[in-house]
TrEMBL record, chain A:
Bias (Acidic residues) ranges: 467-484
InterPro entries in alphabetical order: Elp5, P-loop_NTPase
Pfam short name (any one): Elong_Iki1
Chain residue ranges for the region called Disordered: 1-33, 436-484
Keyword Transcription regulation: no
BP term (GO), one: tRNA processing
Organism: Flemingia macrophylla
Keywords per UniProt: Cytoplasm, Nucleus, tRNA processing
Biased composition (Basic and acidic residues): 1-31, 451-466
Protein name, UniProt field: Elongator complex protein 5
Locations listed in the record: Cytoplasm; Nucleus
GO cellular component, one term: cytoplasm
TrEMBL record, chain B:
Recorded metabolic or biological pathway in which this protein acts: tRNA modification; 5-methoxycarbonylmethyl-2-thiouridine-tRNA biosynthesis
InterPro entries to which the protein is assigned, alphabetical: ELP6, P-loop_NTPase
Gene source species: Flemingia macrophylla
Highest taxon in the source lineage: Eukaryota
Record's protein name: Elongator complex protein 6
Record-stated family: Belongs to the ELP6 family.
Transmembrane segments: none
Gene3D superfamilies per record: P-loop containing nucleotide triphosphate hydrolases
SUPFAM superfamilies linked: P-loop containing nucleoside triphosphate hydrolases
Amino acid sequence: MVKDEMHKRKVQDIPDLEKRDERSESQKPPEQDEFYASLVTAKAMIMCQIQESERNLLSSLKVLEQNNVKTRLLVNSVHEEKISSVDVVKGLRRRAALTVNCPICTYVFPTKMADSICRTLRDGALEGELAPTLTIKDSLASPFGFHIFSHVLLQLSSHVVAQKSQSQGIVIVALSRSPSSYTALLKMNGVDVASSNKWIHILDCYTDPLGWKDKARKSVNVTDPSHQISLATSSYKTVKDVDKLFSLITELGRGLIGENKARFCVAIDSLSELLRHASLQSVASLLSNLRSHDQISSIFGLLHSDLHEERAAAVLEYMSSMVGSIDPYHHTANSQRGYFENFLSEQNFTKGKFNVRFKRRNGRVRATCDEFKVEHGGISFASVSSVDGTAIAGLLPKVQFNLQLSEKERKDRSNVVLPFEHQGNGKPIQIYDGRRSLEESNIEGNPISSGKKEDSAKGEIIYFRDSDDEMPDSDEDPDDDLDI
Amino acid sequence: MDWNLLDEALGLHHTHAKPWPLCGRFVLVEDCVDTSAAFVLHHILKRSFSSGPSSAVLFLAFSHPFSHYDRVLRKLGCNLAAQRDNGRFLFLDMLMLQCPDEGKPNQDGLASVFEQIERVIAALHEDKKFISIIIDDISFLEVAANGSSSDVLNLLHYCHTLTSEYGCAFIALGHKDIYLNGDNAAVILEMEYYADILVRAEPLSTGLAKDVHGQLMVSDKETQHQHGISAIKTHNFHFKVKENGIECFYPGTKI
């Protein structure tokens, strides 16, 4: 009795499976069919002729994405150098299952993770999410941390000035640089310092972190010689008290943006210095308090990783959504020593590698590597892959098979009837992949539609997406790092 | 004036911009047991006096008494006693400094040292524009602070603030090898992060030689100057310490 009941229930639970069996019994499609179905739903390759504007191209890409049920396996040949926006090219490449670079015209991406970091910081936090946090890590072998820090700071402040960012103000917690050096930095890069008081505020933990000077001034009454500071500055004299530091930061931020819904950004120029004065726990709790504060849009800080135990760096990395670590350009860890032994009499260190690790909300981690070069007046980034790309392209002509099609081959190919095309009554077959296509969504309340509509007695193809990354179901926009 | 390679590496020959180019910089001089870098301090001391009448030096001596420096500098052609008398050389004898040891962090000890420094600087700043603070050397400072390296770093940080506040040059000598393999290996790294210019003296990597006393590496992290940020410049050369000065030369160029 019970067994029978169980069996019944089982059947009820998996009716789809049963139906699928029925169908295969009745129609017996070739085995390749399923293979092609998966290929199609994996949105293999998309034909795009770049004739009109690029914006059209990208929106058509998005439509294709939603509609990919009906997309056929197509070959895409794109002249990338005709596309001015790198991000459009990236969007195309990302959708392609296979990209073959033409060996003659290799496209070199001019950008770079550093931009997408700045964009993430600019876009700030979503309601009910932690603020995006960037930790920049450097070491003595490649001490360009402050270069990157100031690059990010300048990018962000230009966004703030242009009111393109979520944050409307920046609070700089200055621990290793004097406020006047920030004034000089901003001035040098053409930021109007006079009007900056509205959106930038420096919390000066550099000049007197332990209150020594304060003590001396009280007893001797020395006049303060620092009179040229034109950025708004408040000083803080008890860096060991991290709780107070937190309340001071939020207070200053509120002073910049007011009590409304607006948000501000926090820049900490030396987490190492903070860690020297306070315990790891208190620094970690400061960071987590800042991240969960609802008026903070983003946080970034600089850490000298070789000054601390690995665990301290790990703790801070766990609390950051982005980690940018700066490594020496040359592979030997001890490059400086290597140079010394080789004895080049004069050497300029200008280059390094910038490894970025992005953590998405859903737990996906993306790691990339850029190269940077410090030049007169700034820092520039280039992707490492572009260099590798040319190397690979150089190897391509040695490949044994032919990538081109002759006219006859092309004609023959277009005459081939693909396995899933010669079944049925000439109508295109639609394969359900667990989501609604545009057409289906017009017919409300009939989730498993197309097959049923045609012939409900025969059953339908049930196709469940299993591991097509997370693309269509994910709440995140796969192109959110592109600036189109 | 004839500049040698060390002057060029330190940027001392760029006198057209400011008479004392080390202003606002922190120069960390590192040496080891085999190769002493005290001569770098002597050289900088001499150069700062010859840079112009508005320069002055505050010297914190933890390792030698005044008479020692007086003798050495006299050989180099610089009369310290005279400079002291006309107020351009302020010598703080810290040989006997011992912070009160009560089993707790002795910040007060070094805080009072800093108070003393700041008071002198503030008074000097009235008529001397280019002040250098020289510490010889950090390891004895650490001894005076009862081995508390965090106190030492705090003092260095405070001295560093004077470089931006008063535009002082700050030069300190430290021994790298006493921090190797220890628990506080991070201390020397921390100092190197502070430093704008790092001068490292090492024995000759190819072994002992009669005519070459060692090799110097000067790396200049010029993070900000009038055009923005710039690269790290590193100079490497050999040196020979003589009675009346030093001789610097590129490897293989000495006959």
